[in-house]
């Protein structure tokens, strides 16, 4: 069965003379628009993608990545001058490069390297998925610890007069994203979001998986206004991380100012309602909770 390489239409003319010798070497070239890649790519259907290294190269790389995050991408430059200009400009994000004119041996060699790269990437993603599965009990423990810690923090905030806030964060259009990434890619995404959450808050804050695609963040000594800014910065970081992949998050933020009383369930419920509003408004945003409608008693569990 021949190896198949996806070739962006803009790069196809540079490779057209190589179709026959490449076919003899067991390599087929499929020339399509990168924007149409999602309709042509399937599990292991292609071993690599070749995109232009010059104008439009970065957009082509992002389009291929959105269709198949594991597919190695090779940038093809028209000549040495174009390659040198690209080296001085914005990085394309490709996994390798070829400079025309190229021969069949160079393409076949790049193809073999791409196969090894894809296999190594798949092994790394699978290892991450296994690690996450092994850490699942700890994450569950984190959530149970959080359920115990939040009422205690609220009680301290009432006694000592300091604020506490909670944010619920969720991946937008999770079913669609999960279907596109597959189980390994989904696990890697959730691990990355949790890592970004942890990196976005202070040492005294606590971020943990909550339910489904949602995460919860406890922020002691933080008013709702400050927690909302933290959540908005997180949304921006995920947006930048997922550029070209359509991956964003939404957040709902609820706070307790240290006066009166509040329950764990009441605070999380208000944050969940704000999260629902954020997603209903199109996602990729953080919304503050409505003021509490009544004064709840503290629940120690």
- Determine the N-to-C terminus distance: 60 Å
The CATH homologous superfamily name of the largest domain equals Reverse transcriptase/Diguanylate cyclase domain
Average predicted local confidence, pLDDT: 78
- Second rung of CATH, namely the architecture of the largest domain: 2-Layer Sandwich
Proportion of helical residues: 40-55%
Report the β-strand fraction as a percent range: 15-25%
Secondary-structure element string: EHHEEHEHEHEHEEHEHE
Specify the overall morphology. elongated
**Order of strands across the widest beta sheet?**
2-1-3-4-5
Q: What's the gyration radius in Å?
A: 24 Å
Total count of strands: 10
Enter the CATH topology name of the largest domain. Answer: Alpha-Beta Plaits
- pLDDT under 50 segments (min length 5)? 295-301
Mind describing the biggest β-sheet? 5 strands, parallel
Number of helices: 8
Walkthrough of the structure:
There is one protein chain. Helix content is 50%, strand content 19%. It is of the alpha/beta class and 301 residues long. It folds into two domains: 100 residues, Response regulator (Rossmann fold), CATH 3.40.50.2300; 153 residues, Alpha-Beta Plaits. The chain has a five-stranded parallel sheet with strand order 2-1-3-4-5, sandwiched between helices. It has a five-stranded mixed sheet with strand order 7-8-6-9-10, sandwiched between helices. The C terminus is likely disordered.
